Amino acid sequence: MEPELPEYETFCREGGWQYKKQIRCVAYEKEIADPVNHPFPTPSGKIEIFSKRLYDMDRPGVSAIPKYIPCPEGPEDPMRRKYPLQLIGWHTRRRAHSIHDNNEWQDEVEKPGVWIHPVDAKARGIKNGDKVEVFNERGRVRIPAVVTGRICQGAAAMAQGAWYTPDKEGVDTRGCINVLTSTAYPTPLCKGNPQHTNLVQIELAKK
Q: Using CA atoms, how far apart are residues 72 and 76, in angstroms rounded to an integer?
């Protein structure tokens, strides 16, 4: 509880609030003022622009100095010419990961669908609610389109956790994002999940 903050109605009426009591904050003040007794948690005890520990790893994709490394299947990947939409995964309110996806009542909360920006949808002849196919070289998913400005142009979004439900042709019909994701690109240090960086194409489903 912040004692200086006003009542909510006052906050709304003022359009915000600026603290009257200014709080002094200096980043790394102790380390700067007394580096001997307050060293940084690095081998040298200093801020390290060059990390010998990372250098000694000699691992592809791990730089010993701060460096921009393009994301595989990201905006700069040549694969974008074939699969131009950046598909991201997100946590839906209808389930916890895959738990309760088989609960049909949850469809009343949110039905399976792939979000696509109106400009991207128009270029593909897609209208809200149309059955579409989301695909890349790893797999194919057939679900309704959710045409919305809440996703940026050039990107699409599909909730993670749906149960794999293929038809007789092997096309998933539930929105299982794992059909489209890769296991080839975890981040080299923390092994981050590649779920949120997948290039895909979206087309109207064939009748």
A: 8
CATH of domain 78-204: 2.40.40.20
Q: Please say whether the beta carbons of 181 and 64 come within 8 A.
A: no
Between the CA of residue 185 and those of 73, 74, 131, 138, 196, what are the distances in Å? 9, 11, 30, 14, 11
Burial grade of 205 (CB within 10 A; 0-12, 13-18, 19 or more)? middle
Per the structure block, which two tokens stand in for 197?
């960086």
Q: Give the residue extent of every domain in the chain.
A: 26-69, 78-204
Please state, as a whole number, how many other Cβ atoms lie within 10 Å of the Cβ of residue 30. 11
Residues whose CB falls within 8 Å of the CB of residue 18, separated by 6 or more in sequence, listed in order? none
Pairing of strands 85-90, 139-147: unpaired
DSSP calls for 41-64:
SSTTSS--SS-HHHHHH--TT--S
β pairing state of 85-90 and 198-204: antiparallel
Low-confidence ranges of the chain (pLDDT < 70): 1, 22, 194, 207
- Residue 125: its pLDDT value, please? 97
pTM of the predicted protein model:
0.78
Four-residue CA torsion sign, 175, 181, 187, 188: positive
